[in-house]
Amino acid sequence: MRPWPEAGRGGAAAAMAMAEKFDSLEEHLEKFVENIRQLGIIVSDFQPSSQTGLNQKLNFMVTGLQDIDKCRQQLHDISVPLEVFEYIDQGRNPQLYTKECLERALAKNEQVKGKIDTMKKFKSLLIQELTKVFPEDMAKYKAIRGEDPPP
Amino acid sequence: MENFSALFGAAEPPPAAAAALGFGPAKPPGAGAAPPPAAAAAPPPGEDAARKAAAGPFYLLRELPGTTELTGSTNLITHYNLEHAYNKFCGKKVKEKLSNFLPDLPGMIDLPGSHDSSSLRSLIEKPPICGSSFTPLTGAMLTGFRLHAGPLPEQCRLMHIQPPKKKNKHKHKQSRTQDPVPPETPSDSDHKKKKKKKEEDPERKRKKKEKKKKKNRHSPEHPGVGSSQASSSLR
Questions:
Q1: pTM of the complete model
Q2: Partner of B41 for a Cys bridge, out of A140, B19, B32, B152, CB 3.0 to 4.6 A?
Q3: What confidence score (pLDDT) does residue A32 get?
Q4: Do the chains contact at B159 and A41, CB–CB below 8 Å?
Q5: What is the signed CA dihedral for B46, B52, B54, B56, rounded to 10 degrees?
């Protein structure tokens, strides 16, 4: 899932538009699934009088697929990571994927921050100690490097 | 300090020594490669000396990499405004099952897709071959959907009831009024479903109790057996 950009006014409007598109697709999918479920009820214990209803449901299945296909054009830029499908295929909540992504990102962020902070401390300690032992050379080094950027 | 500079200062003699070793005029004149390397050996020491004069003892010093605003030391979740998402997903407990995410979807969706070949992965790897357009079914096509009256055989009942929810009593009754008898599937979960259905049926519960009582009477560990044996012996 792509990280969301800074939520300004334009971002909020885009989010609303995206939510509407998702709502539309969700509504069509729910109707389609409900139609299929009712179709299954009719078929499981079929009566001759149910034939008309069955035909109606079958045609609604086709129109339902048409509606879902129309929704596809509005959402062509949405990317779904394949790993989510693994969760769904295992019968697991796909929100767990999002949760684990965020947790992994945070853990890696903390790990890298720790490395950066440690390296900065090491650098300052090293310069400090080298300055004690080689003050003139370290003065030349600092003159070459210029001012170090603030940590 | 003197040793530090001396270390880097000691680098000067080796180039001259190298020139004396490999590229000096002492080599036989037949070696055509000798004069050009000897000629080439002369400028580099001069260039090195010029560089050293500029850089001092730090001739191995490289340029620092460019600085960027976004590094691993910044909190990326805050940077990308994902705090709300983080609190939503990681602050609360997210339920494990797919049916918790899609409570209204009928069927046993918590089962793995590989069990009933309904996996999304198989759909991606082997997409179904179909036409590009959706045409409504005509009357002639619909004649193919004329079905025989009557219930489906148990083996063909593939439609599942909705996943069980917490309020079993009310919804169980509602589902019975709306749906037909819960079908059995030909999948591997038949035994589990049969066990669950058997447990739910009150008549079967009574039968189970009666069976248990009978078993307990006839088991050798039961004290009642001794009495039965005694009774048989008395006969």
A1: 0.58
A2: B19
A3: 95
A4: yes
A5: -160
